[in-house]
């Protein structure tokens, strides 16, 4: 699994915070294909068994964590830095990943603190949203 995390997932999720958080079926299929081949499992092995047995997060969970990590790094920057200015514009116009996070927050009934670039608020939202997202994923399995 370390090979997947270091080689495959790093390429698969390259710049994930920039292209925004979305669930990509193709990315999930790559991960599941890798697990099946690694353990020499048949194609018809249920996906939920693969996730439960390996304990590996889905790619969408990983990219959501990466997006919050990006927001935390940007929140620590000075107001004059371009990444911080861009994040404020994305949030202000509710486009790209900001719109997706807004919909996800609404769907999972988690209070949305997108307009804040305060590290404590971002951490609180990240913890709540990730917890509810992982819970909803596990319920789908």
TrEMBL record:
Source organism, top-level taxon: Eukaryota
Protein name, as recorded: Uncharacterized protein
Organism: Apolygus lucorum (Small green plant bug)
């Amino acid at each position: 699994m370390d090979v997947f995390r270091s080689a495959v997932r790093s390429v698969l999720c390259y710049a994930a915070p920039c292209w925004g958080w979305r669930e990509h079926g193709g990315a999930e299929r790559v991960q599941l294909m890798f697990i099946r081949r690694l353990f020499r499992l048949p194609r018809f092995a249920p996906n939920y068994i693969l996730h439960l047995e390996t304990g590996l997060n889905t790619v969408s969970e990983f990219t959501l964590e990466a997006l919050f990590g990006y927001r935390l790094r940007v929140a620590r920057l000075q107001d004059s830095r371009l990444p911080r200015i861009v994040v404020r514009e994305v949030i202000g116009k509710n486009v790209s990943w900001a719109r997706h996070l807004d919909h996800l927050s609404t769907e999972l009934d988690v209070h949305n603190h997108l307009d804040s670039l305060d590290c404590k608020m971002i951490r609180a939202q990240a913890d709540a949203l990730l917890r509810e997202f992982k819970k909803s994923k596990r319920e789908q399995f």
